[in-house]
Amino acid sequence: MNALGLSSLxxxxxxxxxxxxxxxxxxxxVRLLLKRDDxxxxxxxxxxxxxxxxxxxxxxxxxxxxxxxxYSNHLRATAAAxxxxxxxxxxxxxxEELAGRPLNPSLARCAADGMRLLFVDRATYxxxxxxxxxxxxxxxxxxxxxxxxxxxxxxxxxxxCAELGRELRAQGADVAAVACGTGGTLAGLxxxxxxxxxxxxxxxxxxxxxxxxxxxxxxxxxxxxxxxxSLDERFHFGGYARTTPALxxxxxxxxxxxxxxIERIYVAKMLYGLVALAEEGAFPPGTALAAVxxxxxxxxxxxxxxxxxxxxx
Length: 313
Description:
The chain has 313 residues and is of the alpha/beta class.
């Protein structure tokens, strides 16, 4: 597969930048803009396109092996790309206890798109970077597979996400904000936006480890630090995929105000954080603040009769 094969999927690029009127920002002199990366492609939305496209172009049609949890959007996007572009995919899923159970809707979508699912215990999953562990996984999948890391975050992906920063710079953003899981999107976004503009990351996991990961990704992609970026660790709401009634109410209210369904795991936490930061005076009056909408709420197709279970994959 080459860049021409990927372009045949007809992505919406550059993605739209939509101004929204929200008094929680306007009363502080801040103009809120929504960077609609969720509209890039129906099966590979947002940062999934930006991170996967360069990796899949490099794979050039060979089988792909990658990693994720039981509800991984990255696994779903990789499986969808395999179906659309005609290459085999294998997903290594964290959680051996899931084997033999009916697939959840997210993994059922992966299987329906042709992805082979390998369930491993959590110790094996943590050791997935060990050469011996990886060699064993490749033997179980396809030995000639191209390995794409969890979340798709590597040097190729970071360079792909730099285009997001360049788009926002051309569209007039002063500050860009993005939710962070593995940090790859922010690493590239900050580089593309430039050192004279500001990038804010809102981690959705607890732990305070992400800064080092981002620095490592920028070193691999660009040879050193790039852009002016910072992280605000206050808005994870208890950790990955966790929400609270306050976050649920905020997301529902934001969606009603602006006619946009808000994804909870990443986007809601980022938007909540931006409202809090605006209230704290973190953005000078006159700031054009771009919030990157990296995905949309999960709405997998319901399981029908005869769809595969984990035992058959």
